[in-house]
Amino acid sequence: MSDLVTSDAQDDPPGKPTSLSRTTLSHIMTASDTNLLGTVHGGVIMKLVDDAAGAVAGRHSGGPAVTASMDEMVFLEPVRVGDLVHVRAQCNWTGRSSMEIGVRVLAERWNESTPATQVGSAYLVFAAVDENGKPRRVPPVVPETERDKRRYQEAQIRRTHRLARRRAIKELRERRAAEGLDDA
pTM, whole model, 2 decimals? Predict the structure, then answer.
């Protein structure tokens, strides 16, 4: 398998290039997707983002993966009825059992031949699980292009920030509980 890069550790699965799990899902927006303002509901876009990211996570890990978190979901432009939405996703970074999936959301009018416009982006963390729902090892992601390498490095920064935020919140809660300031 020339597309796979072998790992140094004996129990690590072989690495997979970014391109092997990259995917695009497309969907045309209809009236049933709208909010009270007449544009596409953000939750509809978020579901498409989660679906595309889930497909990438499953492809990269070679099995089931569940959404652990979504952060930095950014809506740049409204999406309208009749827009053809393209959700592009790829695996940016991997840990032992977790994967960061980066997603770009683009939209174009269904009946025009103008270029698609980026309307949103998100980063999701997925955990690969076995048949019992327990974490399982994932192959390391192997960045192929300079853009992939930049995304990998940025994903490491986001992971560091997520872990630091989690630690800070835990410490604050423990401190407040020790001081008797929080009932629940």
Answer: 0.87
